[in-house]
């Protein structure tokens, strides 16, 4: 029994079975992933008929619509509540959750201050301090100045109050004298002293509105953070309206029981209880974004005393409601609570916030969309004060930002001590990126994290909310609260619609019902409807032509120049079905390729066995054996391997998931039958001369067949690699595509199995080749007296034929490979490497040949 042939046939049979089985598993896994990601929290995004173009910069390289993850955190064309009622009136609509962008509050100056626990004016009435005040962020220094401060309390009356009212004088010298920022104020509170020191960087508050009941239904368990907002609204409805003085009393500490556990009454977060927004203005509950501002540190170094600092992004609150307190370094506080809470809101500006102006351009990354941004302005890190003598921003001063958005005027009504308006009150928090709904991805519009990166590193958000990436809103209010913040009645930016009646329907029927509902919505005057089924995210490249790079020199200037490419994740709609279809097609192609590549080696092995089988058949024929007897004799030596192959192929054919794999299995069976026919010249009636030498014509025919087999195998290997790379490059651009690549993992097993069979079969064919050529070489050496060098050189002739034929086949196949991506470098490299391996294997075998030493014949 020919053990090697048995093993090879059995292995190829098992490979055919594994290719079919693993291909079916891969397709099944792709279906499961599609089912898990096909439908998300809602099905249709409804906008103004011209609104979608505001939230979508364009399409990706495959033609799918891109949409901003935080599309409801910026101004758009609005729709009315009457249109929302018409949407709800449709029988197929199960849920319609509206969302609105109310505006942007900007240019509010946050005033920082020191609190000295024990001023000790009685024993030390004149106090001198040298204080260096520094503000830094990830981009460098925003501001740094040094003050020489003298507090003269020799005439202090011993009372509490503003310094000038209680006999205290202050001398404040700082350099350079080019800004208004260090205007020191002082107030005495018993033994404590508050030093109002100066402005911190101004930050914008962006405000969105939702219906907390519908939003919770939309988000499911992920929307639990909205419950306090719903509870607050219900509490307000019970009182018709509630003001700070009614909710918190005259001192801010007489808190109603229903509000006692809310963050807006905690020390350090109490601007509303302390009447910063006025005592008689209506309270409006809001949810605070915990990640709204870029990292910024404010530090004061007091010569001879120590250093104190605060992380500005942690203490800042929407509506300028943060407590900007830097404790004096010598304070000894066990409670951790501030000695004095000083909240100020003197002025602000209300604006809209439009999307960045992006123009689509050629992408630096194949398969990804790319845009270029347009610079629209320059903003100072500090709020402008009317009538103050400060320079207009040029972009070169430390801390100034380039704007890529247009913030036009907008009326927001936020109360102050002396102005009517809403009194914002924090009821709970949310963190962008942590609001994740069940099912597939859909752009929710409000809760996306900052995904911008530059050269692989996180790219910070803008303090002014005027950067390229749309930030999640700083505050979310209810539509009830929105009535107090704006006088506009038509405010809805978008409506997220979930279609009902899909239970029990397959995906195709469900999609038909969703499309019918979208079409019904489009028939409502002034509305557009976009189906968001099967969405995912992908990175988009955005060219930043101008950027302020910051500086570490407090007296220096920033460099304003092009930044280059940043990457921002955008939602991509309608990708899931396409991704699954592409995955199934790739699984089939990879499985088919692994089956066919191994099957080709069967033919090569049988070609090399043909010469040996001719001698066997000739010997059996000389003994009078019939054709069928001779065939049974030769096949009987290999029947276990053939039996394994037959059973495995039959089972593989039955379980194959697609016709393409079934055709590959049939091709493998036909390849085996063809190989057996080639390997068994049953009509041979004479012995091969010179112990299985083979004629020159037959050796040439054998070389041609081997070259064809080599070329097809090399081309298949190159195409397999090209298909896999093309697939991974194409699909891993999206988050769903990266998940979908799991479906190819089973096929990797088939590829590894095919590789093992190829290596084994290659070793067998190399040995067979040596057997075929060895006797011929010995005859040439001993019979024709050719030199070893001549024989080795002649041995290279069939190897060169192999290489030439294979190279022609690989080159011809490059046109097929070029359809998967630009250029055929990988295809040619893999195919060329396989040909090179073949060349080295056969070349080394030819060079290592040595003549067989013939034993002398004993004399008679």
Supply the key terms.
860 residues; 19 helices; 30 strands; 20% strand
Describe this structure in words.
By secondary structure, the protein is of the alpha+beta class. The protein is 39% helix and 20% strand. The protein is built from 19 helices and 30 strands. Strands 1, 3, 11, 12, 16, 21, 24, 25 and 26 form a nine-stranded mixed β-sheet that branches. It has a five-stranded mixed β-sheet with strand order 2-30-27-18-17. Strands 7-9-10-4-15 form a five-stranded mixed β-sheet, with no helix packed on it. Strand 22 (453-454) and strand 23 (457-458) form a beta hairpin. The longest helix has 47 residues, at 576-622. It is elongated, with a radius of gyration of 40 Å. The model is unreliable at 685-693 (pLDDT under 50).
Low-confidence stretches: 685-693
Major β-sheet profile: 9 strands, mixed
Alpha-carbon Rg, integer: 40 Å
Shape: elongated
What class do helices, strands and sheet pairing give?
alpha+beta
What is the percent of helical residues?
25-40%
- Total of helices: 19
Alpha-carbon distance between the termini? 37 Å
Summarize model confidence as the mean pLDDT: 82
The count of strands amounts to 30
Strand content: 15-25%
């Amino acid at each position: 029994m020919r053990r090697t042939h048995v093993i090879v046939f059995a292995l190829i049979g098992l490979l055919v079975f594994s290719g079919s089985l693993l291909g079916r598993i891969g397709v099944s896994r792709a279906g499961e992933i599609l089912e898990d990601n096909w439908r998300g929290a809602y099905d249709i995004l409804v906008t103004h008929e011209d609104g979608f173009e505001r939230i979508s910069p364009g399409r990706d390289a495959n033609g799918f619509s891109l949409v901003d993850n935080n599309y409801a955190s910026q101004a758009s064309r609005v729709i009315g509540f009457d249109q929302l009622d018409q949407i709800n009136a449709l029988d197929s609509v199960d849920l319609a959750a509206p969302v609105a962008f109310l505006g942007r509050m900007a240019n509010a100056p946050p005033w920082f201050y020191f609190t000295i626990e024990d001023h000790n004016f009685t024993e030390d009435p004149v106090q001198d301090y040298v204080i260096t005040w520094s503000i830094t962020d990830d981009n460098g220094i925003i501001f740094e100045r040094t003050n020489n401060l003298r507090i003269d309390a020799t005439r202090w009356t011993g009372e509490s109050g503003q310094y000038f009212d209680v006999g205290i004088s202050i001398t404040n010298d700082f350099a350079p004298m080019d800004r208004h920022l260090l205007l020191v104020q002082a107030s005495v509170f018993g033994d404590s002293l508050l030093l109002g020191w100066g402005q911190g960087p101004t930050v914008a508050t962006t405000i969105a509105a939702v219906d907390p009941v519908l939003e919770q239904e939309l988000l499911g368990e992920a929307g639990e953070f909205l419950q306090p907002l719903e509870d607050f609204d219900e509490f307000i409805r019970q009182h018709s309206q509630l003001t700070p003085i009614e909710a918190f009393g005259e001192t801010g500490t007489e808190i109603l029981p229903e509000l006692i556990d809310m963050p807006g009454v905690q020390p350090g977060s109490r601007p509303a209880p302390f009447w910063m927004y006025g005592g008689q203005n209506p309270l409006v509950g809001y949810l605070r974004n915990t990640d709204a501002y870029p990292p910024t540190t404010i530090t004061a170094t007091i010569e001879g005393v120590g250093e104190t600092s605060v992380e500005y992004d942690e203490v800042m609150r929407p509506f300028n409601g943060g407590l900007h307190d830097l404790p004096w370094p010598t304070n000894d506080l066990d409670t951790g609570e501030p000695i004095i809470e000083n909240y100020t809101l003197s002025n602000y500006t209300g604006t809209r916030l439009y999307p960045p102006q992006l123009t689509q351009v050629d992408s630096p990354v194949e398969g990804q969309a790319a845009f270029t941004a347009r610079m629209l302005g320059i903003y100072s890190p500090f709020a402008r004060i009317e009538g103050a003598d400060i320079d207009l921003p040029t972009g070169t001063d430390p801390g100034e930002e380039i704007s890529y958005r247009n913030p036009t005027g907008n009326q927001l009504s936020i109360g102050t001590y002396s102005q009517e308006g809403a009194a914002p009150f924090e009821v709970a928090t949310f963190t962008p990126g942590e609001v994740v709904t069940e099912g597939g991805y859909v752009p929710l519009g409000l809760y996306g994290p900052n995904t911008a990166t530059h050269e692989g590193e996180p790219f910070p958000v803008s303090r002014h909310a005027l950067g390229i990436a749309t930030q999640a809103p700083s505050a979310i209010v209810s539509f009830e609260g929105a009535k107090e913040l704006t006088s506009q009645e038509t405010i809805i930016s978008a409506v997220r619609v979930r279609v009902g009646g899909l239970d029990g329907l397959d995906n195709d029927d469900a999609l038909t019902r969703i499309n019918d509902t979208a079409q019904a919505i489009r028939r409502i005057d002034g509305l557009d409807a976009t189906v968001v089924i099967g969405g995912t995210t992908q990175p988009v490249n955005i060219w930043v032509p101008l950027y302020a790079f910051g500086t570490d020199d407090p007296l220096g200037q920033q460099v304003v120049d092009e930044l280059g490419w940043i990457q921002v994740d955008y939602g991509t709609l309608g990708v899931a079905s396409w991704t699954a279809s592409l995955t199934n097609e790739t699984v089939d192609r990879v499985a088919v390729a692994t089956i066919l590549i191994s099957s080709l080696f069967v033919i090569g092995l049988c070609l090399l066995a043909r010469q040996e089988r001719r001698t066997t058949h000739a010997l059996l024929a000389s003994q009078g054996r019939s054709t069928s007897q001779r065939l049974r004799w030769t096949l009987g030596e290999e029947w276990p391997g053939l039996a394994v192959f037959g059973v495995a192929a039959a089972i593989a054919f039955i379980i194959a998931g697609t016709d393409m794999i079934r055709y590959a299995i049939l091709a493998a069976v036909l390849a085996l039958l063809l190989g057996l026919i080639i390997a068994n010249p049953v009509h041979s009636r004479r012995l091969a001369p010179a112990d299985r030498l083979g004629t020159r014509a037959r050796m040439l025919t054998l070389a041609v067949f081997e070259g064809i087999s080599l070329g097809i195998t090399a081309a298949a290997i190159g195409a397999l690699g090209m298909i896999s790379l093309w697939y991974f490059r194409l699909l891993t651009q999206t988050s769903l595509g990266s998940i979908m690549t799991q479906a190819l993992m089973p096929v990797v097993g088939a590829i590894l199995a095919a590789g093992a069979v190829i290596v084994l079969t290659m070793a067998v064919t190399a040995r067979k080749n040596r057997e075929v050529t060895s006797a011929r070489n010995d005859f040439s050496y001993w019979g024709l007296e050719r030199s070893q060098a001549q024989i080795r050189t002649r041995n290279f002739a069939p190897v060169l034929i192999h290489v030439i034929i294979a190279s022609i086949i690989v080159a011809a196949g490059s046109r097929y490979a070029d359809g998967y991506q630009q250029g055929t470098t990988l295809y040619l490299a893999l195919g060329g490497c396989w040909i090179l391996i073949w060349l080295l294997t056969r070349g080394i075998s030819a060079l290592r040949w040595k003549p067989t030493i013939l034993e002398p014949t004993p004399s008679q």
